[in-house]
Amino acid sequence: MKITVLGSSGQIGAYLTEYLREKGHVVEEFDVVNGPSQDMTVIPNQYLEFKIRDSDFVFFLAFDVGGSRYLKKYQHTYDFINNNTRLMANVFQWLKEYRKPFVFASSQMSNMSYSPYGVLKRVGELYTQTLNGMPRRTLPPALPLLRNSSLMTACRCQTLPLHPCPQAHHQVALRRRAPQMQHMLPH
Known about the structure:
With 187 residues, the chain is of the alpha/beta class. It has a single domain (2-140), classed as NAD(P)-binding Rossmann-like Domain (Rossmann fold, 3-Layer(aba) Sandwich), CATH 3.40.50. It is built from six helices and seven strands. The chain has helices at 11-22, 46-53, 78-98, 116-130, 143-146, 169-181, and strands spanning 2-6, 26-30, 57-60, 102-107, 134-138, 150-152, 159-161. The strands form two sheets. The chain has a five-stranded parallel sheet, sandwiched between helices. The protein has a two-stranded antiparallel ribbon with strand order 6-7. Helix 4 links the parallel strand 4 (102-107) and strand 5. Helix 1 packs across helix 6 (169-181), helix 2 (46-53) packs across helix 3 (78-98) and helix 3 packs parallel to helix 4 (116-130).
């Protein structure tokens, strides 16, 4: 199966890309760190259109969070709202036009109306529902460091215990997420 991972260089995307390749899938990486042609905030982005059109399945993990600082400052800026609004409009447009099955990585924060991050993730869930995609709520990147309980997977049916080492728990938990996303692919 040919799968495009939007946000392939991110915390979940990097491990998911590696895992899907190990399982024999053809994986197309798409991430702004790979160059300006992969900037999903540029409208129109013909390279993005081609990648989505040419895929059998899309994992939409990309979001401009500005690193872990978004919890305090970045989510309240014009750039944060503008970049993520453009990114979603661009990606959802091509998913709709080419009727591609996809997973949208949302957040446990999508029910927090006081958080621009949460509101935009909720908007993404609404787009996803109208296109018959699969929204999956995960914890935002910095939240596992703030909570000492469990890390939600991208799958709705399981949780992962945190590794006892505070320096390594994030990487261990993320490596465990990738295999659990496998069952979301169409058979």
